[in-house]
Amino acid sequence: MRIARFSIDGNVAFGIVEGEPSDPDGPVLDIIKGHPFAEFERSGRKVPLAQVRLLPPVLPSKVVAVGRNYAEHAAEMGGEVPGVPITFFKPSTSVTGPGDPIPYPSFSQEVHHEAELAVVIGRMCREVPRERVQDVILGYTCANDVTARDVQRTEEQWARAKGFDGSCPLGPWVETELDPADLGIMCTVNGEQRQLGRTGEMVRSVADLITHITEAMTLLPGDVVLTGTPAGVGPLSVGDEVAVTIEGIGTLTNKVIKRG
Ligand code: MG
Q: What is the pTM of this model?
């Protein structure tokens, strides 16, 4: 099931995405009563996807991200896979939705794309053992861990390098029935392929990462875990259209704009 969050008539709602972009009339949204973090019902009211504005599929209290979780990417960054996963936060204000602009930060001259599988947490949890990880996951979406690479090199903590406004595009929706073990993951810039990998190349699995993170902190419904990026990261310029596609989920597209 694909669950999208969107605005319609000035209101925000969740809906189940039915159909494919290739369908003659395109996909429709079956608006749900309530929200996807509890039991919900379909309202039966349907609207064409093309007539709504998709929003970030969740509003996380925090995004916990993992660095260097693909060996080839660790190598291109000039390092090894760390013995303990590198974790960092992206603030709630970094989150932006499908189709939203990524404002190029004024304090950087080198902004990179990082295509990542995002895990969306479905219920409050802490100290989750590996065998219970499935129970706390609502589903998966596409993410772009947009990074000011020059600032990441010069500042020890990455709050600015990876936390600026618009640096965490999420979407287009949450896919709830998906095995994350080995999915194709791709990033294109202006239609040209930049990153291509498989989630099966992750050093630590989704279950490993959720266990590791929840040893330290409580995750809340709607919180998001970014699982690292495959090799091929590279620069973005103002005017570029960057797209993250993950097999079984869909494509998250954003345009880089000059910050106003
Ligand atoms: Mg990353």
A: 0.97
Residue 242 near residue 167 (C-beta atoms within 8 A): no
**Distance (Å) of CA 32 to CA 40, 45, 202:** 7, 8, 34
Distance 145 CA to ligand 1 centre (A): 5
CATH superfamily of 2-54: FAH (2.30.30.370)
CATH of the domain spanning 63-258, picked from 3.10.20.740, 3.40.50.2300, 1.10.1790.10, 3.90.850.10:
3.90.850.10
Q: Each residue of 196-251: pLDDT tens digit?
A: 999 999 999 999 999 999 999 999 999 999 999 999 999 999 999 999 999 999 99
Q: How many Å lie between the centroid of ligand 1 and the Cα of residue 136?
A: 22
* Residue 111 CA to ligand 1 centre (angstroms): 12
Span from the CA of 125 to the centroid of ligand 1 (angstroms) = 23
* Cα of 113 from ligand 1 centre, angstroms: 9
Answer for the pair 169, 96: CB distance below 8 angstroms, yes or no. yes
